[in-house]
Amino acid sequence: MQTRLIPSFLKTTSKAGEAPGALKHIGKKKIEVPHITMWVYNKEVCEERTVDNVNDCKTFILNDHVNWINLDGIHNTQIVESLGQQFGLHPLLLEDILNTSHRPKIEEFEDCFFVVVKMLHYSEKDKRVSVEQVSIVLKDNLVLTFQEQPQDIFDPMRERLRAGKGKLRSSGSDYLVYRILDAITDGYFTILEHIGNDIEEMEEQFIANPNDTFISSVYQMKREMLFVRRAIYPLRDVVVQLQHSESQFISDTTVPFLRDVYDHAIQATDSVDTFRDLLSNMLDNYLSLISNKMNSVMKVLTIIATIFIPLTFIAGVYGMNFKNMPELEWTLGYPAVWCVMITVFIVMVTYFRRKGWF
Amino acid sequence: MQTRLIPSFLKTTSKAGEAPGALKHIGKKKIEVPHITMWVYNKEVCEERTVDNVNDCKTFILNDHVNWINLDGIHNTQIVESLGQQFGLHPLLLEDILNTSHRPKIEEFEDCFFVVVKMLHYSEKDKRVSVEQVSIVLKDNLVLTFQEQPQDIFDPMRERLRAGKGKLRSSGSDYLVYRILDAITDGYFTILEHIGNDIEEMEEQFIANPNDTFISSVYQMKREMLFVRRAIYPLRDVVVQLQHSESQFISDTTVPFLRDVYDHAIQATDSVDTFRDLLSNMLDNYLSLISNKMNSVMKVLTIIATIFIPLTFIAGVYGMNFKNMPELEWTLGYPAVWCVMITVFIVMVTYFRRKGWF
Amino acid sequence: MQTRLIPSFLKTTSKAGEAPGALKHIGKKKIEVPHITMWVYNKEVCEERTVDNVNDCKTFILNDHVNWINLDGIHNTQIVESLGQQFGLHPLLLEDILNTSHRPKIEEFEDCFFVVVKMLHYSEKDKRVSVEQVSIVLKDNLVLTFQEQPQDIFDPMRERLRAGKGKLRSSGSDYLVYRILDAITDGYFTILEHIGNDIEEMEEQFIANPNDTFISSVYQMKREMLFVRRAIYPLRDVVVQLQHSESQFISDTTVPFLRDVYDHAIQATDSVDTFRDLLSNMLDNYLSLISNKMNSVMKVLTIIATIFIPLTFIAGVYGMNFKNMPELEWTLGYPAVWCVMITVFIVMVTYFRRKGWF
Amino acid sequence: MQTRLIPSFLKTTSKAGEAPGALKHIGKKKIEVPHITMWVYNKEVCEERTVDNVNDCKTFILNDHVNWINLDGIHNTQIVESLGQQFGLHPLLLEDILNTSHRPKIEEFEDCFFVVVKMLHYSEKDKRVSVEQVSIVLKDNLVLTFQEQPQDIFDPMRERLRAGKGKLRSSGSDYLVYRILDAITDGYFTILEHIGNDIEEMEEQFIANPNDTFISSVYQMKREMLFVRRAIYPLRDVVVQLQHSESQFISDTTVPFLRDVYDHAIQATDSVDTFRDLLSNMLDNYLSLISNKMNSVMKVLTIIATIFIPLTFIAGVYGMNFKNMPELEWTLGYPAVWCVMITVFIVMVTYFRRKGWF
Amino acid sequence: MQTRLIPSFLKTTSKAGEAPGALKHIGKKKIEVPHITMWVYNKEVCEERTVDNVNDCKTFILNDHVNWINLDGIHNTQIVESLGQQFGLHPLLLEDILNTSHRPKIEEFEDCFFVVVKMLHYSEKDKRVSVEQVSIVLKDNLVLTFQEQPQDIFDPMRERLRAGKGKLRSSGSDYLVYRILDAITDGYFTILEHIGNDIEEMEEQFIANPNDTFISSVYQMKREMLFVRRAIYPLRDVVVQLQHSESQFISDTTVPFLRDVYDHAIQATDSVDTFRDLLSNMLDNYLSLISNKMNSVMKVLTIIATIFIPLTFIAGVYGMNFKNMPELEWTLGYPAVWCVMITVFIVMVTYFRRKGWF
């Protein structure tokens, strides 16, 4: 039996009354040791380093380069706080990074952009979707990303950075943000492809031989869609706001790329909606068929029963042991009773037929 | 059996035709004696006092300080009226404070902001949500709050005021309003966490062994969600209006904090909607399964009955006591009747099988 | 049995092709003799008179006073026409006054405001809502109101006018319009309170012992809500338009009062929606419970029947009167048949148990 | 049995790839011979003529007059084309006139307004709504109307033109367009009145004795509402656009009249929606009641059957013909079996009672 | 049995992390060899050629002519890339052309318009809709179209180009784009006509004799509507954006034609919605009727069974073989038992009648 736990991002822990500045991690601790990697690159050079002491980060920053600091594992509030202090991030922003129950959003601070998005993972084994939060801060030539645990979704980007070819190395920090968002939305389509395949499998199962688990798996899938939709839907507004922002952080050449992310976000929600409609349609169809089949079984069977019950009664009557039952003595009593029973049979069948009951 | 009373905030008492100025408390009297506390603070000093005579309030007001007057218990119209007169509040505003059936709203008067919000409480015992109204008036360096009864939701704020540290003591009255709203919205998440846990429990119960009370508890929860949604939903507009107001009451540094409250409000309604969808999905799933199970019970049982009814009829025929029943005399009559019955049995089973009925 | 007639305001009579100017009363004639009352007042004096000859109205008008003419009973088109001619009202406006099938609306003519709203009445006896149209014309210091029949909803206002105290006497005609609208919206809450009580009663009945009339009364209530919603909903737009109009008719001091009416209108529709959701929720709950109960009845009973039908068949077999039935002669035949029957019984009960059918 | 054909305006014929200029009639040919009437009038004179040769139309046009050309029967593309050439109408406009599958719309060309609306007819006989398209072109002092077949809906207008009195004769071509739209929307209310009466009849039938055709007639009515709604709904936008157009074609004095048409359009859609809700509510109520009644029938009957089946089994046992059945020889065997049967009866009845099954 | 595969445009393949510039075909390869045709025309001349080497395309471009390059078969990324390089198309644009899973959209690049739309095909055989993507690039006097496979939908346009008459030859490239869009939307109506006919057939089948496949075919049609709607719906926004763009690419004379396409798009979605409503209405009606019929069958049959079961019991009692059964010896025992049975029969029938059960 599958577990059906509500994803952690729906179960937000309250901190009512506490000061907004008090940093507190809300969510599950997914890895043991947080891990900081740092990329400093421009068209010519690209340096990649693992940072052991978070307080050193600022010292590695180079002007005229794009600086990308990625933190895997956000449960250590001190690391996040240290990064916040080094780069002058707003306390509310830090609070939001630590709270993994956020819905996707964008905030434009005076000196930086702050974007929260959701990464989706699909477990083939139990056909469940898990959700992970990624926070992105864009500040001049600096990009900070915060993940709950290391993900291979950014590996191709890293390959390209190392390889030193392509638009990525020669573009600014805003293009890096675009690439991160693009990698995440592209990840949605991997999920949707899996889900699409699962739905196709269900449709095949529906045609072939829907067994008892069919209904449960459809509802289970509908349930997953609720969470997928919730994670994807707000992304549209996030990208629109990023795109239409008149900030100096977003260069004109990056805008068409953001529009591309927007298209992907719309397409993803669109697919989620269509999947939901498909599931509902399939489910309604199934329930109608089941109910129709049940009805036809019941009808035929009930009719048979109904016809024989009066006949059995007649037989019962002449099975009585009264001394004085003249019919029993008649020579033609037995054939007569057969005639009566056959007549009753024919009348009832004819009546039901005429009523269109079978 | 749980009581299912409609929350008082849906049962507004009319006062048709009365003058708008006539003050009248609408709601339940929740405590005996109203209680006024007053905080006068700035970065340096913080004075906390309980005011016994409402008419003295104005005398304690200090310029260059933030003045926070909190009234617990609003059923005494004279106290509210006195506060209104001392600080020049609009009669309609006073009327709204006294009417606990209001939906959350904001009104911008010429010299003050008036905000009505709802606090939510969750009773673990009977899994019910109760709603309480909080009215907030922001006028220059004065903040007035009106509660139906004392709540511990503001205690952490009071601690911080006393402790004298943090942004609260050094900020203006608009930041105090933000902190009050923040405490209230944070309170929503406590509720939502409880509800989330209850729904998770229901899901576990659903998998394990849904008994008769399962349906009722799901509907009961859906019912509570109606009230939670109604209390939370309008808050979004309230905060947006507060945020986008071009009033001098809201300083620029407070705006990002209000945006944070807005995010929380959106997230809360979002969670409520997801919870409702989860409940509906679970309920539909349950009803489908129940109906499916019922169908399979009925089908098998009806088939058994149907097969035996004609056989019983045959047995009944040869139980008749007619004198003249030649079959009864035949040596092979009895085995023949068995053959007939077995044939009927096989034909019917084969027919039902071929029809796919079992 | 309750009558379920569609309210007249849904059954609009057509007058296709007729000239728009042709005045025609559409609706039911609710009183015999139309009745005109006239109030002429300012801060100092207040004159109240019953006007017998409609053509005299204009002669009683005083400048520097607020003049309120109220007509009860609009089926006499001549009276309405005469008022229209005396005060220069647009023909379409007169047509709208006479047509009681209008939905609430506001129209701004060059020299006047025209507002149509609906008054609601609730009959405790048959739990039905009736709807009545009130038309209001605001033109400088003149207010004309048109009702289908006399109502006591304005009586408190009249008392206040006579008493000569309060804001009403000292304010302009726009404030009078506000007070009329306020009295009408306050009337909505009286209705909603009644409906809320009825729903609470239904919930109690639902818990206690829902009999056959329960479903009908819930649907009947849902049906009433359709009409209530239809009457209240458009009022929001009416008040918004009135409030945001840049007309000279509406003074700045009246605007916050109109905002109050707007709040009431929103709250009323909000309550109607919540009531509808409550009713739907209760109904779904009831139907689920009924269906669940029915299922459990059917299941147990069918199981009993199914177990005994094969047993009865066995008994029937040995009730046959064949001469040659060796089993009947056996000494242990009878106990053997009992053993067979008990075995069948145990096997079936075990099988059903294992299947979880009871 | 009623025919349930989809109205032709849903079945648009494609002309993929053809040039937009190629005129082609799409729809049913409803009359044999197209018929052109022409009205040329101003305040002083009014000339009414039947035009036999379409090419003469332009010659009859008079400046300083309102010229109204009405064509009944649009299947002859040459006539429409000729009118288009004479008055310089855009090819797309002509195409739209000929295509009766259009939804209501308005288009503002450089030198004219083009309005497409739907007329509704209600056949009392088979309770079906039919839809007809009317196209209106307003160009300076010229109004062209195109109908599929002659209608009596404009007759009262024609009477008024002949009579020479009223606002119509003394106003411009825009007022004529208003009067045409007004006649059409007034026609909607005739339909809605019929439908309202039919729904009322259904409600009465529902209370009295809903027979088998009740469900079908409700669904049939819901189906008609789909088409009515589709024909009326877009009219709102049409009139709003006409009203807010800053064209010189629409004079200021006509604007309040258009607002009146707008009100009617809103009211009509509003009524359609309410009717739909009423029908759905009634249907749900009916289905709930039917299902409830069915349940109570099934329950009582099943209980009776269940009680007697075990009793019949007991009787069957002692109807067996075994030689060696000691109970049969006992003197008190028969009374004892009666006791057993009565005990079983009482136990079962008591058990069912306690379970609350009847 | 029909296959129910999810259309490929819902199953988007991910390319997470890859560079956006990396061109990759997403979709099915529908023809073997891509095919490029080129039309270069103006009012005077019209040249039509098949291009064998894609790299030659640019050399055939003529100024002062409209140049239309059409590519059938987009799976060969090199051809698309070559066209992109020759005409300076944005990499994201090329990527979108190759990805057939896009939803309809428009993008305005600095030097060109890019439009993605969906063509629909209807297979009469299995009543399924298939979807194909068409990408259109408009850049000055150049129009590039990309199709998945050759379609005859543009043939009439090609005929007209060859014939050299009509507005097409004398207009600019924007008019060509309009004609392409017009051909595609006109294609929708062909589909909708087919679907309309199928629904009409279903309605006839519904009235005549709905067999087992009826429900499945209705759901199958509803399923197809999901895909049709998804393909058509976004087109409205595409055309609106094209129309309201202030680009120099769209001349003023083309705008009314685009409005025409917009009207068609609205009308198509409108029809899809109405079809869906019709199907839902028909389905609900069918299910209600089935359930009603089933109920009436069950009721009558159950009543018959219920009446005879107690009678059979009575007969069973007197079929028992007890030695000591005094009733059996009575002379009037047999008639008495008949009297009892007839009494029971009459009582039960009367009771059921009075209850209104039949």
What does this structure look like?
Five copies of one chain form a homopentamer. With 358 residues, chain A is an alpha+beta fold. Chain A folds into two domains: 20-288, CorA soluble domain-like (Beta Polymerase, domain 2); 318-354, no CATH class. Chain A contains eleven helices and seven strands. The first copy, chain A, has helices at 57-60, 77-87, 91-98, 155-163, 167-170, 173-208, 213-232, 235-244, 255-317, 326-329, 333-354, and strands at residues 35-41, 46-51, 66-72, 105-108, 113-123, 128-139, 142-147. A seven-stranded mixed sheet of chain A has the order 2-1-3-7-6-5-4, with helices on both faces. In chain A, a hairpin with a 4-residue loop joins strand 5 (113-123) and strand 6 (128-139). In chain A, helix 6 packs antiparallel against helix 7 and helix 6 (173-208) packs parallel to helix 9 (255-317). In chain A, 43% of the residues are buried. Chains in contact: A-B, A-E, B-C, C-D, D-E. At the D-E interface, helix 7, helix 9, helix 10 and helix 11 of D face helix 4, helix 6 and helix 9 of E.
Strand line-up of the largest beta sheet of chain A: 2-1-3-7-6-5-4
Tell me the major beta sheet of chain A: 7 strands, mixed
User: Do you know the CATH topology of the largest domain in chain A?
Assistant: Beta Polymerase, domain 2
Biggest interchain interface, per-side counts:
B-C, 65 and 70 residues
Approximately what portion of the residues of chain A adopt beta-strand conformation?
5-15%
Q: How many individual domains of chain A?
A: 2
Write the element-wise H/E pattern of chain A from the N-terminal end onward: EEHEHHEEEEHHHHHHHH
Number of strands of chain A: 7
